[in-house]
Records
---
Amino acid sequence: MTWTLILSLAAAAYFLKLLGSVIIGHWVMPPVLERCLLLIPAALLAGLIAKDTFTVGQELGVDARAAGLAVAVIATWRKLPFVVIIIAGVGTTALIRLFV
Amino acid sequence: MHHFRAPHARRFISASLMIGIAFIIFGLSFGVLAVSAGASVLQSCAMSLLIFTGASQMSAVSVIATGGSPASAFGGAVLLAGRNAVYGLAMAPVLRGGSLPSRLLGAQWVIDETTAVVSAETDPATRRTAFWISGAILYACWNLGTLLGALLGSSINPSDFGLDVAFPVMFTAMVASHLRTKQGRRAAIFGAIAAVALAPFMPIGLPILVSAFGMLFGLAPQSQENETAS
């Protein structure tokens, strides 16, 4: 982790917040642009989930992390509290590593 | 002093505190993982204080942790932060009328959760109070969690506790609300497939930038049917 990354990310993130809330506050964003921007989390978070669960570096694989993710998906689907989702997902992976 | 009705104040304060508890847990996990990805305690805390948008911070640490370049970490995190410009437009009327310093400070607190708390209120004065109170509570909780996690992370090995799966688990909790529409689900499926299918063929960190192209499902107008589909 470098300070360059941290500070440039801080500047960019703050600029985006400032852009909407202060700089162009009166502007009506075209609906198509708004739809696309609001779809980024769905696309990117799903990508990050897949990367962090099914890859090690550039290699693909299925290990104890997949079981933790499966439990977390079920907990999220059942609308359980965030704390429960995290403990259930992380705990499942830890237990499998311990006993398998 | 703004005047607002007490039941409304109770509602946005309790909503903020509920989210605040989640922020402490998320922040704690973020702190642990940031340190294990090579950040110092100071760097981890600086990220939460200065960047203050959880998904972007986690995305950047996740890419660095798996060996991606700072440039790809930056790219994914900034793409994720783009939605704050949309939330900012929604929050602009709430900040308008305040002094310039207060608007510059308030902008830092424009995130999904403060927007959600404010959007539940209708009265302009109540919305303003709800923004500042939810912002202060969530900023405090996120940074407290990060500090505790970073200190804890310095003394444990995350994978011993299954914490290496904490990122995908937290991303799962975060993505759920984005899957209510058909477009959201299509974007997510595209993103997940791109990230896995391209991993063997591209430098680490780049496939998730390709995932972001899932946003192009938004080019088509969203029908009423899509919005009500569960």
---
Amino acid sequence: MFMTFALITLLGALGMLLQKNIIVAGLFMVATFFGVAGLFLLLANPVAAALQIIVYSGAIMVLVLFVIMMLNSHEEEKAETSRPVQRWVSVALVLALAFGAVKLVLSSAGVKALDLRGAAMPQAMTLQKVGTTLFADHLLGFEVAGLLLLAAMIGAVALTKRNL
Amino acid sequence: MDKLASLLHMTPAIFWMVAKVVIVFSAVMLLASVWTWVERRGSAMIQDRIGPNRAKLFNRWPILGLSQLLADGIKFFFKEDLVPTDANKKLFWLAPFLAFVPALIGFAVIPFGKDFVSGGITYHLSVLDPGNGMGLLYPLAIGGVAVYGVLVAAWSSNNKWSILGGMRASAAMVSYEIGMSLAVLTIFMTTGGYDPAEVISAQGGALWHVLPNWNIFHQPLGFIVFFTCMFAETNRLPFDFAEGESEIVAGFNTEYGSMKFSLLALAEYSHLMTASALVATLYFGGWQVPFMPDPPVMLSILSFLVKMLFFAWVFVWIRWTVPRFRYDQLMRLGWKAMLPMSMFNLVFHAWRMSQGH
């Protein structure tokens, strides 16, 4: 199961990068989101899986595709000149990031605990638990995120509306 | 149940799982196709016409034109399968499935009857057993994804009308999803759980000894918002902006014909069935029978079916009585009426709960 979802995620991401047509690339990205949702399910977190689909596949990508359709530019623009330096720098950066991420995960406390205690069946996440965690342990972060989103919303309204 | 399972060399659990999947999905598909007939006969009734009544089974029994279904199906199968030259062929093929699959699997989480015990094992009458952790978030997620069928069909046809239809559908879907989600959240709050089984069992009993304890009587505003949003989600009149026959030809399915069109139409009706089942579950007590604390299993299934089919009929009824909205009216209704109403509903019930009700 893990391999299936991981493959869906990775192939979706690869397809998105290689696809010249923006709409098809967007659909590949939706496939990636579904793969990630499947991975969340395997991690005994159905709530995160459902929210992943509701928020990313159901709302954000729909809006992105909407904007692309509205702008009516369905093909990626060709680069004026090829920039080999940028390409190599980006490849190097991606490699460094991937290496760093793998190293971070492998040296994390969770993996060490897994080595010591073996994989115990985790308790499945429920919406109630998400709520109590958000409002008990991460109240400040939650409120700050809410404030940030409110500011972004007001900013978007102020930008698009000519005469307020 | 056990005997049947052992005859097929299966454990009762697996046998039950397979049986549930087959029963639920074939029932939804069957009801969806029957509803194309109900729509045509119903519209004829409302407009004082006769409607389809000529197709006869074995050239003998007309059965109120019900055999029109078979005739339509056979006709769609044998029609030429056209793909426009400049269409994106792969996506054009994919789109009907993207529309049909979410419409069908959205039903999976809804309990259609009371649990029963046989041979010491409890059997749940829903494809996904209660306590799966997704609960009612699942139909919301699937409903959000359903727009891709319309969007992909619209874009891959490479037709101006289609793209207009697809854009309208995606905008409407996203706008109405917020109001709908807030209405459902209020139910989660007052129930204290988000599993459909919990939502239904919380609606048992009576309210003031005269009414069944259904959520509609607690949250009429939430029901209005949710039901309205369901019309937008299923893309049905008065909100059928993806099609809008008088404005943009046939919208997202302009280029579709033969079985692919049939699949898109079936997707719409399956979606309608899922939406009606959701309304029945959330606001009308699901399989609960009024004033009957512990109904027999068969009666509970019947009760659910009656409620679901009633709302499916209301969808048809409203389609042929209410004139369609204009696009800006739809947006105004969504953002300036449905969202504040839903918000008010949420805050009001939060306040009531804080007062200890």
